[in-house]
Amino acid sequence: MPKKLLYLILGSMLLRMIAAALLELGNDEVYYVLYALDLHANYFDHPPGVGLLIRIFTGDLSFMHEFFIRSGAIFCAGVGTFLTYKLGTLLKNERTGWYAAIFYNTSIYTSVIAGAFIIPDSPQVVFWMGSLLVMYQIILKSEKLHSVKLVQWLLLGLLIGLCIMCKVHGIFLWFGFGLYLLFYQRKLLANYGVYLAAAATITIMSPILIWNIQNDFITYKFHSERVAIQESIFHMDSFFQTLGGQLLYNNPINAVVIIIALWKVRSLNYLSLTGFRFILLCGLPIILVVTIMSLFNSLLPHWSGPGFMVLGLLASAYLDEMTKVNFFPKVMKVSAYLIATAFVAAILIIKFYPGTLGYRDKARYGEGDFTLDMYGWKYFGNEFSSWLKYQKKNSVLKDDIKIISHKWFPAAHLDYYVAIPNNIALVGVGKITDLHQYFWLNKDRAVLQKGEDALCIIPSNYSVNIDEAFLPYFNSAEFVKTFESRRSGQMARYFNIYLLKNFQANDEMHVSIPYD
Question: Which residue from 347, 346, 315 is spatially nearest to 332, judged by alpha carbons?
Answer without folding.
Answer: 315
